[in-house]
Amino acid sequence: MKRRKFLIGTGSATIGGATIVGSGAFTQVESHRVANVQVVDDENAYLGLSPGDSPNGDNYVEKDDNGHIEIDIDENPNSGEGVNSNSLTFFDSLINVCNQGKEGTALFIDATNLDTGDSEVVFYAGSGTSTDDTGITSITEAAGVDQFEPVELELGQCIDVGLLIDTGAGSSITNAETVNANQDELLVEGEIKIVADVEVDTGEATALLSNLDIDGQGSTATITTEQEFDVSVLVTNTGQRSSTFSITFNLSRNLDREEVKSSLFETGAGIEDPDVEEPSQNNTKIGFGRTAVDEAYNTLTAD
Predict the structure, then answer these.
(1) How many domains does the chain divide into?
(2) 88-114: b or e for each residue (b if 16 or more CB lie within 10 Å)?
(3) pTM, two decimal places
(4) Residue range 119-154, pLDDT digits in tens
């Protein structure tokens, strides 16, 4: 795992420097043997990091005096000062990551400690377009990012990692608010972790929802406004890796009959259940508990 400092600023939508600092560690040796640990620059480490072989890698990624790469997306010689507000900006092949260790591993980037304000940041494998995120796979674990899929990095394999910045346009995996292009403070600030872990499963996490039951009436129920009711659903992990799934449902009301009716899973109070983690395991029935209709009714709008 490598911790990386990542800063993005605005000010005419300027993105500031992303400083990358290397670290090295090994676990513990308890036998009577000699242990030698060599500290090298990012490019030659077990998890090799280098600028991407692309205009983005050439223009926005540098190396410091210690051989650590730095991301600096700021002003450029062509007079640009940063990304636009209310836009999606893709930096394909920004950095190159190589597995120079001893075995295959899963690779992802932990950005949970990034303060992104109203924007959202996604590191990805693949290539983006100027208009949408078709063709990319998010390898970013972060709040607000709807897709997270660790990528498999075989021994000796290298992949290019790009960067998506959403400042309000929204996409299938992000939903940022519009960013003020004239703000002086940094757009994004904090620390990211580049993680290579042989024990992490790769691939997509997918849940199959079935057997929705509301108050014993099946998937569609009519509930009076003074009644409490139980909700349950059957969840099966049909994906390729472990995951914790959030399940949500919403209610709508019929103004003519002054009743609250259920609909399919959309928005509402979510739940999480760790028993659904492992793929291909037994189905898990999740109960939402008893819900007071009066409280829900008062917060709903008519469909």
Answers:
(1) 2
(2) bbbbbbbbbbbbbbeeebbbbbbbeeb
(3) 0.59
(4) 888 889 877 765 567 778 888 887 667 677 888 888
